[in-house]
Amino acid sequence: MNIRKLGAVALGAMLAGAAALGAAHAETFRLSHNTGDTTTWHKGAEKFNELLSAATDGELEVRVFPNAQLSGGDQMKQAEMVGRGALDFVVTSAINVTPLVPEMAAFSLPYLYASYEEVDATTDGAPGDRMEEIMAENDIIVLAWGENGFREVTNNVHPIKTPADMRGLKMRVAGPMYIDVMNALGANPQQMQWTETFTALQQGVVDGQENPIGAVIIPQRVHEVQKYLTTWHYSYDPVFLGVSRKLWESWDEETQAGVQEAATEAMAYQKKITREDTAKGIEFLREQGMEVYEPTAEELQAFREATKPAFDTWAAKVGEDLVASFQNAINASN
Ligand code: X2X
After folding, report:
1. In angstroms, rounded to a whole number, what is the distance separating the alpha carbons of residues 247 and 141?
2. Which CATH number do you get for residue 254?
3. 257-292 b/e (C-beta count within 10 Å ≥ 16 → b)
4. Residue 51 belongs to what domain range?
């Protein structure tokens, strides 16, 4: 047999192998998320794929698409697409869903939370259950809550220590509630896709932005284009792993249980690495040359007061009952 023939035989064997794998009916779904492939969002999504494949004996898997590629770069559009079944799975954060489900802004009301314990009391408690019902009414099944985190502010003009330091800064924001918060602080907010933000910061189109340290700022190298960071913890942003209701309801109970188990475990992992990376992140950012300012309790109180008008506006939009349920769970955890 000559070399060329040998090659053909080897190729034939490979194809037969691939067909045999295909006989196991591996079905691949699409999972969309709107950050880069270095983030904890992406790691959580990849973990879900591993666990899903293991839980279903290789029958189900997901292919992960970062940077909102599947929604033409539009991070807010993903939720609507999952709702109508145009996307199978999504990992995205609360603020991105607010155009479709305004109630999701409840999580991110300015200075709602003061600790991770308070956060967990809501996502694991009655407010989380209520949000899952509201999302299901919009045809998105929330399988598990993960974490984007407490959003911290960065900029290139000067250190931010007081609300007055925000005045006039051109700030990139992700969604509508943050526009109102920035306006309350006297900044000039501009809504922009996350995928366009690095370049906008680099070119000085905007002076600053706000995002969580472990999940986004470090893995997306925001420190390379921003000098100052203030840990003002002004808004908490959860992520969730969601599936289209149509797809979910097409599965039998056993399949649903496998998907659920994989999702729960994957988001627990995602939350864990996000908190670990955040805890060691400040040190890392200082080493990278950022000037990090950690406000005192009194300084945080000044930001809380200054952002109160935006809290009130959005509490009314979200619904006072829903906000009260969050506050009750928070108070009960302390
Ligand atoms: O766009 C952002 O700032 C990000 C990545 O945190 C969200 O998706 C809200």
Report:
1. 10
2. 3.40.190.170
3. ebbbbbbbbbbebbbebbeebbeebbeebeeeebeb
4. 27-333
| pLDDT reported for residue 22 | 47
Distance 73 CA to ligand 1 centre (A): 12
Supply the DSSP string of 214-227, one letter for each residue. IIIITTTTGGGT--
Q: For the chain, how many structural domains are there in total? A: 1
Does residue 9 lie in a domain region?
A: no
Residue 260 counted as domain residue: yes
Candidates 188, 192, 185, 156; CA nearest to 171 is: 188
Do the domain assignments include residue 21?
no
- How many whole angstroms from 174 Cα to the centroid of ligand 1? 6
Ligand 1 atom at shortest distance from the alpha carbon of 35: 5
Task: Please indicate whether residue 213, judged by its CB atom, sits closer than 6 Å to ligand 1.
Answer: no
What's the whole-model pTM score?
Answer: 0.92
- DSSP β-bridge partners for residue 72: none
CA 159 to chain centre: 26
Task: Write the pLDDT tens digit of every residue in 192-217.
Answer: 999 999 999 999 999 999 999 999 99
Give domain status of residue 18, yes or no. Answer: no
The response to whether residue 96 sits with its C-beta less than 6 Å from ligand 1 reads: yes
Q: How far apart are CA 184 and CA 292, in angstroms?
A: 23
3-state secondary structure of 203: coil
Distance 289 CA to ligand 1 centre (A): 23
Q: Where are the beta strands (DSSP E) in 17-82?
A: 27-33, 60-65
Q: Give the single-character DSSP code of 237.
A: E
The model's pLDDT over 162-197, given as tens digits with 9 standing for 90+, comes to: 999 999 999 999 999 999 999 999 999 999 999 999
Closest CA to 123 of 101, 138, 108: 108
- CA-closest residue to ligand 1 atom 3: 174
Supply the residue whose CA is at minimum distance from atom 8 of ligand 1.
93
pLDDT band, residue 18 (cuts 50/70/90): very low
Q: Where are the beta strands (DSSP E) in the chain?
A: 27-33, 60-65, 89-93, 140-155, 170-173, 188-191, 208-212, 228-244, 291-293
